[in-house]
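REQUEST ID: PR-0412
SUBMITTED BY: lab tech R.K.
PRIORITY: routine
TASK: structure prediction, single protein chain
INPUT:
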Amino acid sequence: MIRLIHSLDSKNNRDAGFVSIVGAGPGDAELLTIKAFKALQEADIVLFDWLVDKSILALLGEKTETEFVGKRCGKHSMHQDVICDLMVKHALSGKRVVRLKGGDPAIFARTVEETQALEKHNVEYCIIPGITAASGASASSGIPLTHRDYSQSVIFTTASLKNVDSEPNWKELVHKSAKQTLVFYMGLGKLNLIVNRLKEYGLEDSFPIAVIDNACTINQSVMTGTLHDIVRKSICNQIQGPAIIICGEVVQHRQNVSAITTQALGKYALNTTESALA
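STATUS: complete
OUTPUT:
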């Protein structure tokens, strides 16, 4: 049993609102940091996005309010300005607010826009890191992000591409691909474009690529293939996302990790009772 100690002295500090911007990690609730867990336990309200797994929300106390503020390409989304306004409003009313984000707040999470809004209204905040999707997908699928012989570096890039001008430097990515791993976030809907661009700038059809769907959850699935067949495989397997895309020779060196069996914290659940938090 893990005994947790309050980091925020409850009653004396409740008059002033506070925002914790928390990384929920890639899906598995057991991958939360202890600091993130404590912030969730102390929260009056949690604003969460669609990448946050329901097993993490199950950790919240009965009196903790929740509000979905998700943004997802192709579906109804809450505008970023509205999310910022909600954070400020709840904090100024004296609440302990957790802005819960999938993965890590520092990677493709628009955290700076939210902290700027908080600073504008003199709201105190902290940022609590989380395991980013690439690290989680790598560990749970067994596909390493680097390899001593085949990949000395890794690039995280977004595939949320609005127009040609916002696309990554494909020429540079392809040029370094022989000794580098490419990881695309938010790329499932653009998988065909990614494949075509990589081939257009010189990669062969046989170049290895993997799609990890719902990494670190009980619904995880892993597809490995090449630029030639990965789009077809993703369609045949009806991949829905969220998914992370890993490209490079590391895909050929997948480790035989055991399948994920832990559900909702499972046998060794953190003790979330008041006595454990005293």
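NOTES: The longest helix spans residues 80-92.
REVIEWED BY: pending
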